Amino acid sequence: MAEALEVRQISLRFGGVRALTDVGFTVAQGELFSIIGPNGAGKTSMINCISGRYRPSEGQILFHGRDITREKTNARPKLGIGRTFQNLALFHHMTVLDNIMVGRHHLLRNNFLTGSLYWLPGVRGEELEHRRRVEEIIDFLDLQAYRKATAGTLSYGLRKRVELARAMALEPKLILLDEPMAGMNLEEKEDMARYIVDLNEEFGMTVVMIEHDMGVVMDISHRVMVLDFGRRIALGRPEAVLADPHVRRAYLGEEDEPEAAPVAAPGREAQPPVRAVS
Fold first, then answer.
1. Domain span at 24
2. Which CATH number covers residue 42?
3. What's CA 182's distance to the chain center, in Å?
4. Is Amino-acid biosynthesis one of the keywords UniProt gives this record (predicted)?
5. pTM assigned to the model
6. Beta strand 3-14 with 17-28: parallel, antiparallel or unpaired?
7. Per the structure, how many domains does the chain have?
8. Does residue 120 belong to any structural domain of this protein?
9. Rounded to 10 degrees, what is the CA torsion of 90, 185, 206, 198?
10. Residue 131: pLDDT band by 50, 70, 90 thresholds?
């Protein structure tokens, strides 16, 4: 399967602080790939590097074989990369419909002059096509009842769904989801998980997701990468990653198995075990 994303030994520093150190991985086209780890592990920093919000100190990021490491942030949507944010970034005074329409800004070919000539068939046709695509997204995410509601009046779970809709409106090849289920109740999480799976399977979008809910991650991900203190400590299928002792220690807080106490020979005092130092 072709690679949609290749991250080559990315490091990110803020002054003397290393947020990421030599992190590398690939994401296949059509894959649902999750990044997990404790708070401060570097998950959002990695998403920010891919989306262009941060520029890596070292390493390369390739998108469908194209080096995008130095591409500007506003160029990424045009290449086919969309994202949601950990903290909601909606226009709260605008309607749900208008928020989603904003997501199609890079697809608009009209300028100020042609926009003022809405009566022309070509201009009107393009506008109608954009609205048709937005209506499809509204139907897909069950937002019909809220399409004219002001975004700021919606519940937190619904606003998360609207932000996903806006990212979908970009028609991305790769969508980056930064904690899409944070702050949701169980029912909202189940709905969001279903939308993400359908987004991946029905729309064919490649998904890179950060999420703290281990149950959801293990249920819907094809592969999982674990970061700890900015380093990759595991990568693989969900069941293998969950069984990895380094992951259980770093992410789930489990302790190492205690070593058996040494048994002294008769007449001799027991000595502590000697640990190898590398």
1. 3-80+172-250
2. 3.40.50.300
3. 12
4. no
5. 0.83
6. antiparallel
7. 1
8. no
9. -110
10. confident
Q: Does 132 map to a domain?
A: no
Q: Read out DSSP for 76-132?
A: HHHHTEEE--SS----TTSBHHHHHHHTTGGG----HHHHTTTTSHHHHHHHHHHHH
DSSP per-residue letters across 37-52: -STTSSHHHHHHHHHT
Q: What is the pLDDT of residue 97?
A: 93
Residue 139 CB partners (closer than 8 Å, separation 6+): none
Q: b/e per residue, 183-212, with b = 16+ CB within 10 A?
A: ebeeebbebbbebbeebbeeeebbbbbbbe
What is the Cβ-side half-sphere exposure of residue 245, based on CA atoms within 13 angstroms? 3
Residues with Cβ < 8 Å from 25, sequence gap 6 or more?
A: 7, 33, 225, 232, 235
Range with the poorest average pLDDT among 30-34, 46-50, 264-268:
264-268
- Encoding tokens for residue 249? 């220690």
Locate 200 and state its tokens.
């991946």
Distance (Å) of CA 252 to CA 137, 140, 182, 216: 36, 35, 18, 15
Q: Which of 176, 175, 174, 194 is nearest to 184 (CA)?
A: 194
Confirm whether 139 is domain-assigned.
no
CA 246 to chain centre: 23
Distances (CA, A) of 225 to 28, 39, 145, 218, 228: 14, 15, 37, 11, 10
User: Which residue, among 203, 248, 201, has the nearest Cα to 220 in the 3D structure?
Assistant: 201
Residue 40 located in a structural domain: yes
Q: In what order do the strands lie in the sheet with 58-63?
A: 17-28, 3-14, 58-63, 66-67
Coil, helix or strand at residue 28 = strand
